[in-house]
Design a protein that fits this description.
With 482 residues, this protein is of the alpha/beta class. The protein folds into two domains: 349 residues, TIM Barrel (Alpha-Beta Barrel); 94 residues, Golgi alpha-mannosidase II (Immunoglobulin-like, Sandwich), CATH 2.60.40. Helix content is 29%, strand content 23%. It has 13 helices and 21 strands. It has an eight-stranded parallel sheet. Strands 14-15-16-21-18-19 form a six-stranded antiparallel sheet. Strands 4-6-5 form a three-stranded antiparallel sheet. Helix 7 crosses helix 8 and helix 11 packs parallel to helix 13. The protein is elongated, with a radius of gyration of 25 Å. The termini are far apart. The N terminus is likely disordered.
């Protein structure tokens, strides 16, 4: 009996050692809340390619990023939505370009199953017609390996829930006795993309399904997840928690981004506990009104800015976007004026919004590259604190003999040396002088002012900082106490 007990103990110790070794080899120790200590910077395929990017285009973009953007802190390369569809330009089986919907029967049966790339457990896989390296069950691992070889990180877009086809065919949930039809909710569908059913987070099998997804993504080497259809019109807090739990369970650190906005401010605490960045605005395109509205949203969310918590004003729609006449308008260079592009980058930087570029990098003008890679401006985004709006004044309805005013001022502090950053924003449709009364922030005495866009010192100031700015123009300064 003594010998038998010793044998059993030896086996148990060996198994425990084996499990520990496996975790050390295959998993990575991480603290979920510490995965995004600074606002993520990178590129996402949506603005330029919508749902239709392919492997060759993505790799060429990654090459460009590694050479031109990585030295300035941009690190995430993200494949946006419907990567499992071989021909996402189709709409209802026609050949015209449009939103990548597929027709389904009322019971969820797909009329065109050839457009759905899925494994036996109901998990979507990249379409090999667009991503050839995904053949033979490789998934996105070869593409992720390529991104990693360039010193960058790899991200993918996912839609909340489980695919209709998986529910219709009642695919098993990997490693369990549960099936897709037990967790899918046919009444809970996305209002703008018809592929998915929501998952009931209170049902056994729901967490196991999400765990199986993220175990797959971990095998691929995914570093960043953009989860869509999760913030509005209903905030799906249950599925947010399922995703967060699945990331921690899979053993691979993945930054979690939630879309689309507007995120509900009433759920800010829950968001900050479960996601790293979340969209506070609807999709932002190259329209001044979209940027103007973000002043209000960014101010409302400013108290939640901090490590691991980044209110997201959306992607940066500069350069060439909407390639090949995509659903969001004709192929074009951004309609934003140069002043508006500088204002956007200044605002996104001093509010510490994530900086995700949406442009086609393969045709990026030198001027746009300059705009995106000013290290003194990017420093504000990555290394400031106490970011807040000092004033936003709208005084446009005045008599003809009175001065019309419509401007905003933001400040922040250099977390390393205490210098102050000041952003001046002219929101008028005409040139105007914007002034910052330094007494508003009790900045008394003399300060050396440096123009961050021009990378030049403009002299010592005291009491007031003013700039004459063109329509929708901006200026960004560093103030160093003398």
């Amino acid at each position: 009996m003594k010998h038998l007990t010793q044998i059993v103990l030896f086996i148990l110790v060996s198994l425990a050692s084996s499990c520990t070794k496996t975790q050390q080899e295959n998993g990575q120790e991480f603290v979920y809340s510490e995965l995004a200590p600074t606002p993520p910077m990178g590129w996402n395929s949506f603005d330029a390619y919508d749902s239709r990017i392919n492997e060759a285009e993505f790799k060429a973009t990654v090459d460009y990023m590694a050479e031109h953007l990585k030295p300035h802190g941009y690190e995430y390369a993200v494949v946006d939505y419907i990567w499992w569809h071989p021909e996402p330009g189709n709409w209802d089986n026609t050949r015209r370009k449009g939103h990548p919907n597929i027709r389904y029967e009322r019971d969820g049966k797909p009329l065109h199953p050839e457009y759905i790339t899925m494994d036996e457990y109901g998990r979507l896989l990249p379409a090999v017609e667009r991503f050839p390296s995904a053949s033979n069950g490789s998934g996105f691992k070869p593409l992720a390996d390529y991104v990693h070889s360039k010193g960058l990180k790899f991200g993918i877009h996912i839609m909340r829930g489980i695919h209709r086809s998986a529910v219709y065919y009642n695919n098993p949930i990997k490693g369990t006795d549960y099936t897709a039809s037990q967790i899918g909710e046919p009444w809970d569908t996305c209002e703008w993309c018809n592929h998915m059913y929501g998952v009931d987070p209170s049902i056994p099998g729901a967490q196991e399904y999400y765990n199986s997804l993220f175990e797959l993504y971990a095998e691929w080497g995914v570093d960043y997840i953009k989860a869509d259809d999760i913030l509005r019109p209903v905030y799906h807090r249950g599925e947010v928690e399922l995703i967060r739990n699945a990331i921690e369970h899979c053993g691979r650190p993945m930054v979690l981004s939630l879309s689309p906005g507007e995120a509900p401010l009433s759920d800010a605490k829950h968001l900050s506990e479960n996601a790293h960045l979340w969209r506070i605005s609807n999709d932002l395109w190259d329209e001044w009104e979209d940027i103007e509205y973000n002043f209000e949203l960014l101010e409302a969310w400013s108290s939640y800015i901090g490590p691991g918590n980044w209110p997201d004003a959306d992607m940066i729609p500069v350069g060439k976007i909407s390639l090949d006449d995509r659903p969001h308008g004709p192929e074009r260079m951004t309609r934003l004026t140069w002043n508006e592009q500088v204002l956007l980058m200044s605002l996104w930087s001093i509010t510490r919004s994530p900086l995700m570029i949406g442009a086609d990098l393969l045709t990026l003008p030198d001027s746009t590259l300059w705009l995106l890679t000013n290290d003194e401006v990017l420093y504000v985004n990555q290394h400031s604190t106490n970011n807040r709006e000092v004033i936003r004044l709208d005084n446009r309805n005045v008599r003809p003999d009175e001065k019309k005013q419509y401007f905003a001022v933001w400040t922040a502090t250099d977390q390393d040396n205490g210098d102050k950053f000041v952003g001046l924003f002219n929101l008028l449709d005409e040139e105007s002088e914007v002034c910052f009364n330094m007494e508003w922030e009790m900045l008394r005495g003399k300060y050396l002012a440096r123009d961050l866009w021009q990378k030049t010192d403009i002299g010592v100031i005291e009491g007031i900082l003013c700039a004459t700015l063109g329509a929708h123009g901006a200026a960004l300064y560093r103030l160093t106490k003398q």
